[in-house]
Specification:
Number of helices of chain A: 13
Shape of chain A: globular
Order of helices and strands of chain A: HHEHHEHEHEHEHEEEHHHEEHEEEH
CATH superfamily of the largest domain in chain A: Type I PLP-dependent aspartate aminotransferase-like (Major domain)
Radius of gyration of chain A: 21 Å
Strand content of chain A: 15-25%
Structural class of chain A: alpha/beta
Strand order of the largest sheet of chain A: 2-8-7-6-5-3-4
Oligomer: homodimer
CATH architecture of the largest domain in chain A: 3-Layer(aba) Sandwich
Distance between the termini of chain A: 43 Å
CATH class of the largest domain in chain A: Alpha Beta
Chain lengths: 394, 394
């Protein structure tokens, strides 16, 4: 019997892999192919022009095959700094930008920078499951903050959770899994709380490019942010580069000096081709991203219209890639999710993947909720979603 | 003043980045360009045929741009399993192979699988510095095992270090930084010790493809290995893919179930293009690798000959990419290394990056030693190395 670390064992297995296993086990008829609305990821490759550019880099840029700086390609750090300064109306310098091997790694690095084993971090529920997993395996307590109306976390409730062990508050906006876009004043309220209590605010903006409002989603960078804010970002969704693992982390240069150690030991450097692809995207794909965003927002509108016609379902949050819904059935969400894939060929994720079950201290909401990652469903797919939910017999 | 995690702060900064800063600060005359023997990494891109193959994948394989399984590309796991089974004379199945974002990440995952914060791991000195950094930031004690003759660790000394807190022994062979190739019976002795004490043996074989002996470097996989052995491997050196971040980890399927959680949260999946490049290399570059190995071994012979003519220097270990030498000067190795780059344009790393200084409990050897990563020095470069060491005036 091999030894096994307690911390790693305590984390649950990757939910997306578990959901894939459900789908693989489903024996669906030919006229009911799987409708997979489980993962928040593009299903198409990057636009052709970007692929052409990447092929040229592979052939003609020797440095794209070799180690680079731990904190990332200088030209990419510069470009992020310039575009962020413009987008957020505040000063972000290249020395405050690190490139990471995806946004999940940025989260891990941020936690490593602020919390030791035995510390605690405030995590709103529903959580993004990989955040919960990392906290568990790092031995850091996830101090749960159930969201309030509009699936938004509340500053006053967070304040009541802070003690000497709490080192950070985590926000994800637009949110995974709920799709909720936190108002700028809510984000500012959390930053003020974090600053007042001397802890960090970690804000994950993976889905920023699909926000329903134009302009900066918050004004954190316009103020005195460096001691408090750690921002996380992903190039995966916006340029369809999920397979290339490129994200970013914005923090003070002092924090990056610590984070550099973490990134060095975990991956040495982000992969070089992915970084060059992200840079090319930032410099060349602004119009294309705008059209992608318009399409996602049209799908959001279609999802909202669909559920308006199904009043027994509750849309709790909707935005970016996700709708988070309350289901009308007398069964738990994990049972429902497995039956939906087996019986009507619809794969969505149950709320039990995003919050504790009642038996583990939850308030019962996890059992009543589902996450629908609608971004990959076109008009026809959204109609199919409605038809299959309606066809399901509990 | 921002909060900072104690564990991460306790790790030293990335030595390679520190050495790069020394080189950047050196003001060298035009007729004495920098001879950089500091990093163990190819300086040329992959062979042309591999780059052509990668460009075709970028253009024609949509899946190469999207998420893949956490544990890696199935075809690559299969190919590793088949080639390992043949190379080591034992049974390694695809279910025992995980692909990682580089071999450093494989080490982090292995440690996460066996040790919690507060546990300990036996680490021979001189260490590979990123191993020491990760243990520090994970809150895992590095219980140091100074190497004996031939820069080999000794089983009996390791046995005396084991207590209830020790969860694993780490070996690196061929070794970074010493170049030492551990005899198969030494490796077997450590495996027997680990098995008898119920702990893990983590063996890092990043430099396996440049071993001086033909055939399997050990016979661990021929025996009952699954509860004990975790093997780490890198595709970075052998196919010059350092910039693409692809490594491997071989462990029991039960361990991989735990390790999958770590890899999922830290990177979601290894980058897809790098994995396909590694697979192409395994399937097409056997002859090319053999010629690369022959060239490295010729350079090893040249290094040994060079130091035979410089008897005031001691060659403590020599193999794969590295020579580990004792210097003859009355100064510490870190002072010497900084003076070598500034005064004779030679960048090598001091022993103080690979073991504790005397002031931190070391036995004084770190101050007397240097690592020379000779793999990137051709015949002319090795002659230049000799000339510059000879020209240095202490």
């Amino acid at each position: 019997m091999p030894i096994t670390a307690r911390q790693l064992s305590s984390a649950f297995p990757p939910p997306v892999m578990e959901a894939r296993a459900w789908a693989a086990a489903a024996d669906l008829p030919a006229d009911m192919p799987l409708l997979n609305l489980s993962q928040a990821a593009p299903v198409d490759p990057p636009p052709d022009a970007l692929r052409q550019a990447m092929a040229q880099i592979v052939l003609n840029d020797p440095d794209a095959h070799l180690y680079g700086p731990v904190l990332g390609l200088p030209a990419l750090r510069d470009e992020v700094a310039q575009q962020w300064t413009q987008a957020y109306g505040g000063a972000v310098t290249a020395e405050s930008v690190a490139i990471t091997s995806g946004c999940n790694q940025a989260f891990c690095a941020a936690i490593a920078a602020v919390a030791d084993a035995g510390d605690a971090v405030i995590l709103p529920t529903p959580w993004y499951f990989n955040h919960k997993m990392w906290l568990d395996m790092a031995g850091v307590e996830a101090r749960l903050l159930p969201c309030g109306p509009g699936m938004a976390p509340q500053v006053a409730r967070a304040a009541a959770l802070i003690d000497d062990r709490v080192k950070a508050i985590v926000l994800v906006s637009p949110n995974n899994p709920t799709g909720a876009e936190y108002p700028a004043e809510v984000v500012a309220g959390f930053a003020a709380l974090a600053r007042a209590r001397g802890i960090a605010l970690i804000i994950d903006e993976t889905y920023r490019d699909f926000h329903s409002q134009d302009g900066a989603p918050h004004d954190l960078f316009a103020g005195d942010w460096q001691d408090t804010v750690i921002q996380l970002y992903s190039f995966s969704k916006v340029y369809r580069l999920t397979g290339h693992r490129v994200g970013a982390l914005v923090a003070s240069p002092a924090r990056l000096t610590q984070i550099e150690k973490f990134l060095d030991t975990v991956t040495i450097c982000p992969n070089q081709l992915g970084q060059r692809a992200a840079l090319w995207g930032l410099q060349n794909l602004t119009d294309w991203v705008a059209s992608e965003r318009a399409e996602i927002l049209a799908r959001k509108t279609a999802i909202q219209a669909l559920f308006k016609g199904m009043p027994e379902w509750a849309v709790l949050g909707c935005g970016a890639y996700f709708a988070y819904v309350g289901h009308p059935f007398d069964m738990t969400s994990d049972t429902l999710a497995q039956r939906l894939v087996a019986e009507v060929g619809l794969l969505v994720l149950p709320g039990t993947m995003f919050a504790p079950r009642a038996a583990q201290g939850g308030d019962g909401s996890a059992e009543r909720q589902l996450r629908i990652a609608f971004a990959n469903a076109d008009t026809q797919g959204i109609a199919t979603l409605g038809a299959r939910l309606s066809a399901f017999t509990p």
